[in-house]
Amino acid sequence: MLTVTELMVFYENALAVNELSLKVETGQVVGVIGSNSAGKTTLMNTLSGLILDQQIKEKRKGGERITIMGKVEFEGRDISLMPAYERVRLGLVLCRERHPVFPDSTVLENLLIAGHLGSKEQVKRATDLTFDLFPNLVRWRRRKAGFLSGGEQQMLAIGMALVVGPRLLLLDEPLLGLSPAMQQVVVGAIKNVRRQTGATIVIAEQFARPVLPMIDHGYVIENGMLTMTGTGAQLMDNPEIKSAYFGV
Amino acid sequence: MLTGYLIYGLINSVVLVLVALGFNLTFGISGVANFAFGALYVTAGFLAWIGLNTLSLPYWVSAPLAVLITAVLAGLLYRVVVLRVRGLVVSEVIATFGVGLALLELFRFLGFIGFEYTLPDAGDFGVSVLGVVIDSQRLLIVAMGAALTAFLWLFTRYTTTGRAFRAIAQDEHTALTLGINTERTATIAVAFGAGYAAVAALVILPLGTIAVNEGYNVLVNALAVCIVGGLGSTLGVIVASFLIGMAQTLTAAYLGTHWMMIVSLVAILLILLVRPSGLFGSHKQLEERI
Fold this sequence. Notes:
CATH superfamily of chain A: P-loop containing nucleotide triphosphate hydrolases
CATH topology of chain A: Rossmann fold
Number of helices of chain A: 10
Strand order of the largest sheet of chain B: 1-2
Structural class of chain A: alpha/beta
Distance between the termini of chain A: 35 Å
Strand content of chain A: 25-35%
Largest sheet of chain B: 2 strands, antiparallel
Helix content of chain B: over 70%
Distance between the termini of chain B: 52 Å
Strand content of chain B: under 5%
Oligomer: heterodimer
Largest sheet of chain A: 6 strands, mixed
Shape of chain B: globular
Order of helices and strands of chain B: HHHHEEHHHHHHHH
CATH architecture of chain A: 3-Layer(aba) Sandwich
Radius of gyration of chain B: 19 Å
Largest interface: A-B, 34 and 31 residues
Structural class of chain B: mainly alpha
Shape of chain A: globular
Number of strands of chain A: 10
């Protein structure tokens, strides 16, 4: 479904992603595991096309020069130069890190904004699905999203991505800043998303422990480079992973 | 006497509402700076005048045409000028203000000065309210003010485009990841705001003459209302318009008309000292929580 070939991303002369190649098959849940500054977010932004917007903005203000090389293909089509909002129309939807919601709009409005591409019935169905997955959100539907807790904002952010109607859902650090209990809730919801929508999912995460059991395939990256790859079970048994991510 | 001042103060407040709505739509709700706002307001007036007098078009052709051309002009302003500095708010402000300045002074240069530049008003009847006669044009202003406010409020809540305006102002990257074409949405927001300015011009300008200086006054008034009310809040626009509008009228009545323009500026200063996010602006408190 998604093929990345020899992707390289530079911020000025700093290499953020280094000759990274990966493949996501339809229906899979794929994990991208790495510590802070490993290049996870850069990778996700490149897949979603957001980096093209950042590139233009930086250029306008004479800031950092962002250079992107390599190829991103979605269902056999080269989308390397396609703007972010067009990729969304193909079904490639990113949920950014740090619970990206519209703080001044209510929970319901957030979901409606996310549903701007779909028909009324589609949006209604997706909104209902979101409230099914995250019953916590139901009682806050008329509350401004900025006043929700971090975990609730993350749930809302995932809900918004669902309302868009993803075929490939990219989740950038969905567990960041959440308590272990809340992490379990979000992990459970992600599993449900897969079951109920059949979407293919890519999760970028530094918390390997809750993520590895649910993925079909994992890529471990460090300093922008692929250091290890394998199924979730293989990675969990790997001694290096154990020492680096589980502290064992 | 006082009743008269109060009633005319209320009408002046509605004038401010009309003027500030478009500015608030573009800068407050959508987060796109358009400081050529006053220039576009005056442009709409002159365009309507040219349509009526130079091209001898009937009013019902000339007026909508003026609104449409002003909106398209604003859209072009965005595409050609603002897009190059989009995301750098200070540059957006300076660039649009510069274009506005050029546009206004162009009218002055072309000789659009004088008392013959007037637009037709709504007719010669009046209604007496509490012994004060209100003419038809001012009644039209009040009606349009109510209609445009209601329309804007409904538009930003119940239409896809209106919600997208609010989305791009809050977080452009999140809007992009939801598939919103942010630059197209911003262009529409600028054009829409300019359309509002043009409608305001067509109902307000018949009270006086179309003058280049109106462009500067309108911008200052719109800015004052939006800052006092809190950027982006429609309720804030209404409340602030009534505060400033009444203050202006009473100042003009008791201190003299030459003090009137100071009211807006003093209002800006005071609110920035006391409550910088405006009476109904919630951006600040929310930002601290995230």
